[in-house]
From TrEMBL:
Domain of life assignment: Bacteria
Gene of this entry: ruvA
Renumbered residue ranges of the record's region Domain I: 1-64
Protein's name according to its UniProt entry: Holliday junction branch migration complex subunit RuvA
InterPro entries linked to this entry: DNA_helicase_Holl-junc_RuvA_I, Hlx-hairpin-Hlx_DNA-bd_motif, NA-bd_OB-fold, RuvA, RuvA_2-like, RuvA_C, RuvA_C_sf
Organism whose genome encodes this protein: Rhodovulum marinum
């Protein structure tokens, strides 16, 4: 399996790029968000990839981080979600946004992706809500791994529409709440809400905000 492509970008299409690796051009499908963040032709790029294998097709899909690729694989496991829909969801929300939406049960955010209807959006949330804490906790480790590319072929990070807490901060906050005895699902929901309300918050700030959300009302 091809897990990563690093080389020179030689062509940009409406939904894909071609990357030259040692004289071989690889066509890689990317989301709108990733495409917008990539440099111009001739520049060095590196993308983590997932290979879709069908009887009549071999297609590479590219992602700026391992975290985003993990969400793609989970989304593809939901009935009714194909590669196109998964890329639309990630292109609209990004990996962090997908995690927050699923943890909070916000299927409306998922539905905002082009071509995703309300029934499919609700199915995504229902089927993946239990997996969101684990993926969010993995975010810090995967983000660190994403930064291990050689300097001459940097991994291109897709720029989110607004600042967001780092994956590692969310992962650390989840771990801290778990150590305090909170269930993974409620901890993930609180961290996701805190992250959405306080873009750019560090780990201590996320923990404080999440604890306030989890505090008994009344």
């Amino acid at each position: 399996m091809i897990g990563r492509i690093a080389g020179r970008l030689i062509h940009r299409g409406p939904d894909h790029v071609m990357i030259d690796v040692g004289g071989v051009g690889y066509i890689v499908q990317v989301s709108d968000r990733t495409l917008a963040a990539l440099p111009g032709p001739g520049e060095a790029v590196a993308l983590f990839t997932d290979l879709l294998v069908r009887e009549d097709l071999l297609q590479l899909y590219g992602f700026p981080t391992l975290h985003e690729r993990e969400w793609h694989r989970l989304l593809m496991g939901v009935q009714g979600i194909g590669a196109k829909a998964s890329m639309a969801i990630l292109g609209t929300l990004g990996a962090e946004g997908v995690g927050r939406a699923i943890a909070l049960g916000d299927w409306g955010a998922i539905k905002a992706a082009p071509g995703v209807g309300p029934k499919i959006a609700q199915r995504v949330v229902n089927e993946l809500k239990g997996k969101a804490p684990g993926v969010m906790a993995l975010g810090g480790t995967l983000a660190a791994a994403s930064g291990m590319a050689p300097a001459d072929t940097p991994v291109i990070e897709a720029a989110p529409p607004r600042p967001a807490p780092s994956a590692s901060a969310q992962a650390e906050a989840l771990s801290a709440l778990g150590n305090l005895g909170y269930a993974p699902s409620e901890a993930a929901g609180a961290v996701a809400q805190a992250a959405g309300e306080a873009p750019g918050a560090d780990t201590p700030a996320l923990i404080r905000a999440a604890l306030k959300l989890l505090a008994p009302k009344g």
